[in-house]
Amino acid sequence: MAKITIRDIAKQSGVSTATVSRVLNNSPKVSPEVRSTILRVIEELGYHPSQAARELKNKSSKTIALVIADGTNEYYFQIAQAIIHAIQEEGYTLFICNSFNNSEIERNYLMMLSERKIDGLVLNSCGGNNELIVSLSQKIPTVLIHRRIDHPGFVGDFANADFGISTYEMTMELIRNRHTKIGIICGPTQFSSAAERLQQFKRAMASIHITVDRDYRYFLEGPHDSAFGYEALEQFLRLPHPPTALVAAHNETCIGALRYCRDHNIPIPETLSIVAPCNVNLCDLFYVQPTYALPDTWALGFRIGQMLLERIQSENQLLNREAIYIPRIIQGNSVSCPGNPR
């Protein structure tokens, strides 16, 4: 006979695994009626919780770690605030680590956090540690954010704002404004986040029968920083036939491109239209408001906290899940038809 799990109890009781876990741990946050139903199902199915697992759970540190790749990106700190709000009612504290986009630093953090017996992990990986992350996910409830890990052994959830769809919508906005020479400054495509944005850019350009590949003259790939955005736009504008529009696929690269335009007196959008399928901060410093994508970081972060709590309370027995949020497009004054003022 197959072993009865918390998931089986939840399914037959018509409740979540988190609710079953609360009953097993004598939490007062369950109504008497629901508690009675769950206890009856437990008795009917003959469920016997693992004593070892219960003892391990009782040693909870009440600590959740958030490891981010870029501590300068306000996006992650907005998400962190929402995670804190979601977990604090259950008595958890959030511990934040910044890997500075360095895989060795990230690895050291992950090893240290594993030794500290954290209860859960929210990870924005910078890459290079997939095998370690897969191994940890089988022991520590884990939610990945922004970058997926495509590995059959990974146990956990994934949450993100879909900036890929934003990239498609904004590229189509440029196309509707009669642009065909459209450049894209993209992040490292070995990461799922950058690869998805590039794929959606290709899809939009295919609608006007333009193929985007490694030979596409208006494509540059590099790090997520303003220096690369600055240098990339400089390269584009030195071409014999420069682009008339630009998709800056990351907030920092967009800021770098805007700085180049400011430093070289390039009017936006008269000479160059710019869109950013991400949340661009500091744009007022450039006397232009780019059209950009605004993610609901509060809803995303709160859901991440909820997902992790559910995974902790189910003793990591949940199936892998995803939570994807579509950013809202904010229209700015950075787009016009080629050669025309707004």
UniProtKB/TrEMBL annotation:
GO molecular function, one term: transcription cis-regulatory region binding
Keywords of the record: DNA-binding, Repressor, Transcription, Transcription regulation
Transmembrane spans: none
Domain HTH lacI-type intervals: 4-58
Entry-linked Pfam families: LacI, Peripla_BP_1
UniProt key word Endoplasmic reticulum: no
Name used for this protein in its record: LacI family transcriptional regulator
